[in-house]
TrEMBL record, chain A:
Membrane topology: Peripheral membrane protein
SMART domains: AAA (SM00382)
Keywords: Antibiotic resistance, ATP-binding, Cell membrane, Membrane, Nucleotide-binding, Translocase, Transport
One record GO biological process: daunorubicin transport
Protein name per Swiss-Prot or TrEMBL: ATP-binding cassette domain-containing protein
UniProt GO molecular function: ATP binding; ATP hydrolysis activity
InterPro entries reported in the protein's UniProt record: AAA+_ATPase, ABC_transporter-like_ATP-bd, ABC_transporter-like_CS, ABC_transporter_ATP-binding, DrrA, DrrA1/2-like_C, P-loop_NTPase
Family under the similarity heading: Belongs to the ABC transporter superfamily. Drug exporter-1 (DrugE1) (TC 3.A.1.105) family.
Main location, first listed in the record: membrane
SUPFAM superfamilies for this protein: P-loop containing nucleoside triphosphate hydrolases (SSF52540)
Subcellular location: Cell membrane
Residue ranges annotated for the ABC transporter domain, each copy included: 9-239
TrEMBL record, chain B:
Organism of provenance: Knoellia koreensis
Annotated membrane topology: Multi-pass membrane protein
Protein name per Swiss-Prot or TrEMBL: Transport permease protein
Major location category of this protein: membrane
Protein keywords: Antibiotic resistance, Cell membrane, Membrane, Transmembrane, Transmembrane helix, Transport
Subcellular location: Cell membrane; Membrane
Length: 329, 284
């Protein structure tokens, strides 16, 4: 493989087998420097396994991978100096306080004591953990643990960061904070490779997304590309008067060129959208016709729809069913 | 967008430069000996912090020696040596051997527990010597062996034991006990690296620890044992360690037993250290 200067991660045909199960079955990844790359997939898709192979945590069974041009299989020690890894489960020391954890990881990576202390204080501040700095980790909430875990990966300012499901189990506010933090990292020049089960998260954060399912990459592209390839948003309006339904449907059809789906009992009309902006056009037109609206929602295609479209099966069904895996491959 | 320069093979460091300013550092291709020592000491610090926070982890080297010393001396003293006071010079070194061995078991069990914890996943992905997470706790455990042997001597002295070897003899005995603890800990560390669960490690460790301590001269002179048992007790390295401790503490003499004890320890380390390191590396 020829070294590509613009790639932070370059994987070709990655394979991992557990017994006779091919958990990762020939995945190619190209993560450019300075971007956020999202790996999207349901439970058991092989996200963690892929990340672990790239992080030198699992031997690569087939194919090859380079990180900043260094071979992952042969130059493990060099790779580990370039990486910050935040795994799916918190990997901090329960017996130490937040500060002590950061000092431990700083010292282990060769920072001097004063330097480690300075870095620890900065990171605790940045991650809003200053107040909990001297509390034992056992007293931390899940979100605090997650933030400390990320902080621990950043002590030596690694240029490449792997985040395995960074927001799973976080409440919406904490999730938003985590997203902001990840964006800041990118502003500072980091490259981020993250996995997620949420289309929404990939949408918010990732410049490019690879969708994997059962160890195979089924799609890749920007979030817009994926969504337009996969399914469409829809606008649902609740009308004030049931009598307006026919007129509203005709108006919407004229704008989007497709038949809206009415449900008269609920005075509800569901309008398929080619592009999300069309929602505004529809609403303006309804207002001009004097049709009253009680409430409305715009729905993006859900992860389930994405999976249905890309793989022919839904995200959460039969992922552990080896019989259907045989059939799919 | 970015530049990447790699020095020719053979050079220990390489330079990778990225225009973002985040990465402009020297990358080593291996861990130096100095770094390995520094990382081991950092992980030893972590282990001592853990000991301080979980005081019950120190029970086997604090409460147990206190209890056992009093118990064994009062129960067996009259029967074996005629009086408690006469038994003390026999039993105190014996108990030191026993408590240090018990303390070793914890080394293996705790390593196993540690390896199952999340923080070990981070150790695996840090650019550190693969051996440091194993060596760190072993360094910290020297403190445990020191506490165990000092406390046992202290309890004995409080009960009327007057070591004939004086301060120097006792000091030598404690030192030998620490060396022994560290050496024999490799056996249990190896169990820790191959065992599937901490409980399993504990079980097999006890199965090894009991014959090693009780089939020795720790509590009774081997002369009273049947021939086959005596044959084992006499070659048991624990017997040699205990004899050496007795001679150091009671007579202030460095005899051939000290040599045998050190040799026995060296053999144990020579066998079990490579085994442990190999199976640990496989899991790191
Ligand atoms: N150590 C292992 N031994 C055996 N099978 C494994 C092992 N690790 C993972 N697998 C299997 O490999 C497949 C992929 O697992 P992986 O953890 O990579 O999925 P994932 O995409 O990270 O899922 P999740 O969203 O649940 O974290 C799963 O079917 C899993 O059962
Ligand atoms: Mg996972």
């Amino acid at each position: 493989m020829h070294t590509n200067d613009t790639l932070a991660v370059h994987a070709q045909g990655l394979v991992k087998t557990f017994g006779d199960q091919r958990a990762v079955d020939g995945i190619d990844l190209e993560v450019r420097r300075g971007e956020v790359f999202g790996v999207l997939g349901p439970n058991g898709a092989g996200k963690t396994t892929t990340l672990k192979m790239l992080a030198t945590l699992l031997p690569i069974d087939g194919g090859r991978a380079e990180v900043f041009g260094h071979d992952v299989s042969r130059e493990g020690h060099v790779i580990r100096q370039l990486l910050g890894v935040t795994g799916q489960y918190a990997s901090v020391d329960e017996n130490l306080t937040a500060t002590e954890n950061l000092l431990l990881f700083g010292r282990l990576q060769g920072l001097s004591r004063p330097e480690s202390k300075r870095r620890a204080a900065t990171l605790l501040e940045q991650f809003d953990l200053t107040e909990a700095a001297n509390k034992p980790i056992s007293a931390f909430s899940g979100g605090m643990r997650r933030r400390l875990d990320l902080a621990a990966s950043l002590i030596t300012r690694p240029p490449l960061i792997f985040l395995d499901e960074p927001t799973t189990g976080l409440d919406p506010r904490t999730r938003g904070q985590m997203w902001d933090t990840i964006r800041e990292l990118v502003d500072e020049g980091c490259t981020v490779l993250l996995t997620t089960q949420y289309l929404d998260e990939a949408d918010q954060l990732a410049d490019r997304i690879a969708v994997i399912d059962r160890g195979v990459k089924v799609a890749e592209g920007t979030s817009d590309e994926l969504k337009s390839s996969v399914g469409r948003s829809s606008l649902t309006v609740h009308l004030a008067e049931r009598d307006d339904l026919v007129l509203a449907a005709a108006t919407a059809r004229g704008l989007v060129g497709e038949e809206p789906v009415p449900s008269p009992e609920a005075r509800r009309l569901s309008v398929p959208l080619e592009r999300s902006e069309q929602a505004v056009d529809v609403l303006v037109a309804l207002r001009e016709k004097g049709i009253g609206i009680e409430s409305l929602t715009v729905q993006k295609p859900s992860l389930d729809e994405v999976f249905l479209a890309l793989t022919g099966h839904t995200a959460d069904s039969d992922t552990d069913d080896s019989a259907s895996m045989e059939a799919a491959s | 967008m970015s530049t990447l320069t790699t020095t020719p093979p053979g050079d220990a460091t390489q330079r990778v430069t990225v225009d973002t300013g985040v990465l402009d550092r020297r990358l080593a291709t291996h861990v130096s000996l100095g770094q390995t020592v520094a990382q081991t000491m950092t992980l030893a610090w972590r282990a001592t912090m853990k000991m301080r926070r979980n005081f019950e982890q120190l029970f086997d080297v604090t409460i147990q020696p206190l209890l056992f010393t009093a118990m064994f001396a009062y129960i067996f003293g009259g029967a074996i040596s005629g009086s408690v006071k006469d038994y003390l010079p026999v039993i105190i070194p014996g108990l030191i051997g026993q408590t240090v061995l018990t303390a070793c078991i914890a080394t293996g069990v705790q390593l196993r527990e540690d390896m199952d914890k999340g923080v070990f996943d981070r150790f695996k992905v840090l650019p550190i010597a693969r051996i440091a997470p194993l060596a760190g706790p072993m360094v910290a455990d020297l403190v445990r062996y020191a506490i165990a042997s000092t406390l046992t001597f202290g309890t004995g002295i409080a009960m009327g034991y007057r070591p004939g070897g004086g301060v120097l003899g006792v000091f030598g005995a404690i030192l030998l006990a620490i060396v022994t603890g560290w050496s024999l800990a490799w056996i249990f560390t190896w169990f820790g690296t191959v065992g599937k669960t901490a409980q399993g490690v504990q079980g097999i460790s006890l199965m090894v620890m009991f014959p090693l301590t009780f089939l020795s001269n720790a509590f009774v002179p081997t002369a009273t044992m049947p021939g086959w048992l005596r044959a084992f007790a006499d070659v048991n390295p624990v017997s040699h360690v205990i004899s050496a401790i007795r001679e150091l503490a009671n007579h202030g003499q460095v005899t051939a037993e000290v040599g045998w004890a050190v040799l026995g320890c060296a053999v144990v380390v020579a066998i079990f250290a490579p085994l442990s390191v190999r199976s640990f590396n496989r899991k790191m």
